[in-house]
Amino acid sequence: MKRNIVLRKVVEAGVIAAIYAALGMLPYSSSAIQVRVSEALTVLPYITPSAIPGLFVGCIITNIIATGNIIDIIFGSLATLTAAFFTRKMPNKLLAPLPPVLINAVVVAIILHYTAGAPLFFTMLTVGIGQTIACYVLGYPLLVKLEKIKHKLFMAEQ
Q1: Who has greater pLDDT, 34 or 33?
Q2: 90 in a structural domain
Q3: Is residue 124 part of a domain?
Q4: How do residues 77-122 score in pLDDT, each as one tens digit?
Q5: Quick check: 55 and 135 in contact, CB under 8 A?
Q6: Which residues neighbour 58 within 8 Å (Cβ) at sequence distance 6 or greater?
Q7: Over the stretch 53-81, which tens digit does the pLDDT of each residue have?
Q8: Cβ distance 33 to 71 under 8 Å?
Q9: Alpha helices in the chain (DSSP H)
Q10: CA distance 27 to 91
C-alpha cells in the first residue's frame, strides 16, 4: 500500500512537470516582459504537495530548453521551488498565487539584469505584471476549478 502511495505521488509530480514544461515552451515565455503561461500551475501546491517537486522539475526542463542559461536554470528553478513551498503554506486560496508573483518578480528580474543587462527595477515591474497575469488571471480560476475536483485528480494527503 505504501509503495502505491509513493508511486502515485511521483506520477502526479511527473505529470505536473510535463505539463509545466510543455506550457513553458509557448511564445513570450522567456523575456523581460513575459507571461509564462506555465506559471498558472504554480497555484497547484495549494491543492497537492506533489506539485512542489513537479513544478521544480518542470521549470528546470523549461529553462534548459528555453534559455540554456545556467544561471536561469539554477536560480530560476530554485525561485519556482521556493514559491511552490510558500504557496503550499498559504492560509487561503486567494493568497496562493502571491508567492510566485513576488518571488519571481524579484529573482527573475535579478537574473535578467545580470545575464541580459535588463534594467533591474523596470524588469521587476514587468515580470511582476506578467506573473500577476499568469498566476491570478490564469492560475486562480484554475485553482478554483481544480479545488472542486481535486479528490478525483490528486492523491489525498496521508
Answers
A1: 34
A2: yes
A3: yes
A4: 999 999 999 999 999 999 999 999 999 999 999 999 999 999 999 9
A5: no
A6: 16, 17, 18, 19, 20, 21, 24, 38, 41
A7: 999 999 999 999 988 999 999 999 999 99
A8: no
A9: 2-24, 51-66, 70-71, 77-89, 98-116, 120-132, 140-153
A10: 33
Question: Which residues constitute the domain of residue 56?
Answer: 2-153
* CATH number of domain containing 21: 1.10.1760
Number of domains in the chain: 1
15's CB contacts (< 8 A; 6+ apart) are 54
Contact 105, 96 (CB under 8 A): no
The string of pLDDT tens digits covering residues 15-32 is 999 999 999 988 765 555
Residue 14 and residue 6: Cα distance in Å, rounded? Answer: 12
Q: Is residue 158 one of the residues assigned to a domain?
A: no
Q: How many C-beta atoms lie closer than 10 Å to residue 23's C-beta?
A: 19
CB atoms within 10 A of CB 19: 16
**Cell numbers at residue 155, please?**
492523491
What does the block give as the cell for 146? Answer: 481544480
Residue 140 exposed, middle or buried by CB count within 10 Å (0-12, 13-18, 19+): middle
